[in-house]
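Revision sheet: structure tokens.
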Amino acid sequence: MHRILPFLLLALSLCQDVSAGADRLILVSSLLEEHHTRFRDELASALAPTTLDEHRLPPAGREPHPLPPLQAAGTPLIITAGARACAQGLSQAQQPVLCTFITEAAYRRLAGQARAPRHSALFLEQPLSRQLNLASLLLPPDGGLVVLRPQAATDADSLRAAAVRAGVSLSILTLPPGDNPARRIQQGMDRHQMLLALPDPAIYNRHSIHGILLTTYRKGIAVIGFSDSFVKAGAIAAVHSTPEDMARASADIASVFLADTETGLPAPAHPSRFTVTLNHRVAQTLSLALPPEARLHDQLRDMEAGTR
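Predicted:
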């Protein structure tokens, strides 16, 4: 028995080391301070008692730090927040990486050069179907929906097909190269229509959004945006994922992965958790009565589950 005891203690120690690695994740973040803090706190809470080791990247333009040496100590998963963090994780990690707060286009671009053995992503954008479903819940009976797209865009057929599935009457307004989005809206839309803003930085950016919202407001056109800041600026509504939503969606994936690392990560996808934000003041000015945010959220959930 005395000879067996040392082996039993060694085996127990090894088991504890493996367990300790499995109960420890790395968070690599390039988010701004407020979003980082909200995401980190919610993620740590949702994953407890799993330990979350933070690695903040310096501001853009400074030399990035290598990933912490903990990655070699059995940490089963790295979660990144932000495009720069995803780029560093995919290029340096020796274990699976889950990227969050990154656009689908940016992730697809980085994924082709990834060194990480396995990786996936939660995209920053909402699925088009969810945006169209929100529009269908807000459109007046005689209203039509308009999207503004660059003239060179090739997604017109898929947009129209998605609108048909959502039961929405959709018109596509094209923007020629060099044209002003606000002027195009001024010329091509009327007050019986509603503008659905899709997250395209070529159209909706810090230089153009103020002019777009001012033009639509003067014409009595309601805008459905794609972020809470868009709603604060004057859109009547948006469906988006907050840092807390993204953290909980990330924790959902990480928990399943930690329970059985052999199952791997799911395919890249849009976040399953989301928030509806409304601007009742602007809606009232446009003579629109909006349902409560919680009701719209539940209706969107039911629509995606096929129960409505």
